[in-house]
Design a protein that fits this description.
By secondary structure, this protein is α/β, with parallel strands linked by helices. It has helices at 14-26, 48-58, 75-79, 85-94, 128-137, 157-164, 203-210, 252-262, 291-307, 323-334, and strands spanning 4-7, 31-33, 40-44, 67-69, 99-104, 119-123, 141-143, 170-173, 184-187, 194-197, 214-215, 244-249, 267-271, 284-286, 312-316, 339-341. The longest helix has 17 residues, at 291-307. The protein starts with a strand and ends with a strand. The protein binds adenosine monophosphate and magnesium ion.
Length: 342
């Protein structure tokens, strides 16, 4: 299949792009598009056959559900069996934006996009291209990240082109993805709201809006054997570069000492800034001086490690709270849960 690639120009010409993409979506095709978090790979959410193509294009396990993207809050009532007050409070406060809510689903939402769960994940993105695509196409768009399953999520159009060209109908290019990690997912289908995936919207922000929330323990580590995941996304290895990555959870001094003792000619360092590497004679990549920069750079840096052929990587450990928790959660999976704590 030839993939149509179109770049947003912010002129009248863009109308044609949305028209073409809308036609493809309504006909059951696949369109990749930018959002404020990462690029998404979209299909008509209520067309089970169309969304099945997403799984094939990504090589995604069929029990890993998709997020339904909407352009209007009222769509909640169309898709969810119950809309709790807390969902309305969060929608008012954080939508459009990087927040996904899990609610009990209506029958019209096909089981094929919920991994057979009785719940549906819903998000209203703020990125103007995503919002306009949903609005003008007239369909709800089911979308996971637009990468090959298992690889780092795509934060640039070139990542999508590398992973999916020839496998999907269209890619809308607009390099203004700015958060860089996927949406925060909160499960509102049970008594106490539970954060299933950390993101730019943090637990503190939720608690200010709706009171007590829980962070699912799987966020900080791997699932224990025999535990059934609440979100199938939690059970798969994710975001991983080819290199063997180890997180060094320590002070800067201890990181330097560890690297001096254990590094060799195959080692690449993944650090916050250049100055972390003073006195260390090894190639390095920087991924940002603070939580927000790290969120934005992480996936691109993980792909860069592959491009430079890195074999063994020692990574400095991000913060484990606020937006840092979102970074830590992704890096932990990229590292296959290998952490050295000093
Ligand atoms: P991504 O492929 O990165 O866009 O991720 C979509 C995420 O949403 C996956 O981690 C899914 O497990 C999660 N998700 C989608 N629908 C549900 C649901 N009904 N219940 C729990 N998690 C969900
Ligand atoms: Mg993904």
């Amino acid at each position: 299949m030839e993939t149509i690639i179109k770049k947003i120009t912010h002129t009248e010409e863009d109308k044609k792009i949305y028209e073409q993409a809308g036609q493809i979506l309504r006909a059951g095709g696949l369109v990749a598009f930018p959002t404020e978090t990462v690029y998404g790979l979209g299909a008509d959410a209520l067309d089970a056959k169309a969304s099945a193509k997403i799984y094939a294009a990504k090589g995604r396990p069929s029990d890993n559900p998709l997020i339904v993207h909407i352009a209007d809050v009222n769509a909640l009532y169309d898709l969810a069996k119950e809309v709790p007050d807390k969902a309305l409070v969060l929608a008012e406060k954080f939508w459009p934006g990087p927040l996904t809510m899990i609610l009990k689903k209506k029958d019209k939402v096909p089981d094929s996009i919920t991994g057979g769960l009785g719940t549906v994940a819903i998000r209203m993105p703020s990125h103007p291209v995503a919002a306009e695509l949903i609005r003008s196409s007239g369909v709800y768009i089911a979308a996971p990240s637009a990468n090959t399953s298992g690889k780092p999520s795509p934060t640039r159009a070139e990542h999508v082109i590398n992973d999916l060209s020839g496998r999907i109908d269209m890619i809308i290019q607009d390099d203004t993805v700015d958060i860089g990690v996927e949406s925060t997912i909160i499960d509102l289908s049970e008594e106490v709201p539970t954060i299933l995936r950390p993101g730019y919207i943090t637990q503190a922000m939720f608690e200010e809006a709706i009171g007590k929330t829980i962070i699912d323990p799987a966020i900080m580590g791997s699932l224990k054997e025999g535990v059934i995941p609440k979100a199938p996304g939690m059970k798969y290895k994710h975001y991983a570069p080819k290199a063997d990555v180890t997180i060094i959870d320590s002070s800067l001094e201890a990181f330097r000492d560890y690297v001096k003792a254990h590094g060799d000619k195959d080692t690449t360092l993944m650090v916050f800034t250049d100055s972390d590497c003073e006195g260390l004679d090894m190639p390095h990549i920087c991924y940002g001086a603070n939580d927000e920069e790290q969120a934005k750079e992480l996936f691109d840096v993980l792909r860069d490690l592959d491009d430079i052929g890195a074999k063994k990587v020692y990574a400095r450990c991000p913060n484990k709270d606020g937006v840092g928790l979102a970074v830590y959660n992704r890096l932990l999976r990229a590292a296959g849960f290998q952490v050295v704590t000093l």
